[in-house]
Amino acid sequence: MQEERLTGPRIFIVAGEPSGDIHGASLARAIWELAPQARISGLGGPAMAGAGCAIKRDMMHMAVMGLLRGAGKIFKARRILAETLEYFDKEPPDALVLIDFPGFNLALARAMRRRPTKVIYYISPQIWAWAPWRIKKIKERIHKIICILPFEKEIYEAAGVPVEYVGHPLGDFFADLKLDENFAREVGLESGDIPVGLLPGSRDQEVFRHLPLMLEAARVIHQEVPQTKFFVPCGAEQHLEGMKEMARESGLPVEILAGKTFEVMNEAEVTLVKSGTATLQCAYFLTPMVILYRVNPIAWALSHLIVKSPYIGLPNLIAGEKIVPEFLLGTDRSQEVAEAALGLLLDA
Predict the structure, then answer these.
(1) What ranges make up the beta strands (E) of the chain?
(2) Assigned CATH topology for domain 10-175
(3) Per-residue pLDDT averaged across 203-227, rounded?
(4) Among 101, 104, 70, 103, residue whose Cα is nearest residue 85
(5) 36: helix, coil or strand?
(6) What is the pTM of this model?
(7) Class of domain 187-347
(8) Half-sphere exposure at residue 39, Cβ-oriented, CA atoms within 13 angstroms
């Protein structure tokens, strides 16, 4: 744990998943450039700790989506929430900065309503995509939204929520990114090989819901284009063995890599990618992609009620039109996903 500074404003950052941890680390460094004496602590992971934040709880194990798979961690989340409030009783922060992770963060914001701490939401819930009624909770609990997508500002302004648009933090992140120049050699890519990236997400449910479907699509792709080799970056150590087992069972030329997400994006001829920030990352590398997101059949049947956005992929949302093939899936449509990827490969 890093030592907290002894003077200056107290800022507490909450990030509950790897991408939020990275953004929290970047935010902390930017704050210290402006206010070197700021005391920054929080709930986060290794990136925030490495930046110098005093981490009260490692939250990377909490990256769970969905009621059933997440049920086992609900009690742990409640305990962490209670511990955090007890910490605030002793060391009340001047500002609480919430990063994405809405299930936990909106609950924490609710508990802060009668406290003097200013609550700021950086990288806010995607109310434009689903469950738009959450904006009422946000208006009641959040003092200010700092949004990263241009169309979000109008949504919050229309609802009377104080908001400021600052642009996407990926620009700053990629400015400092250094890729492994030996990646192709290290993974054994040879002349004539066609690398394909499979990016199922980082949360428990995302990985084990999307990777099997992606592997089925990969099977179709490999049958049509035998030169393809598949690479799956793994961002969480607890997923590594399970992902490797799925790869072995597939019988395909698939390599599960610890990290190397951006090397895979940069090297791949095409990627199958779970909707989210990774789609913008692929776009940065100008890598053709097929975007997908799989939900359970009941959620898919109700999707017209809860999903309000015309697209699930951020490149399509920002462009205002479908420029990238995308699939919201309630059943196994791996054949269609594979055909979309083959269309991109064969047109290249």
Answers:
(1) 10-15, 39-44, 54-58, 95-99, 118-122, 144-147, 163-165, 194-199, 228-234, 254-258, 270-274, 289-294, 326-329
(2) Rossmann fold (3.40.50)
(3) 94
(4) 104
(5) coil
(6) 0.81
(7) alpha beta
(8) 12
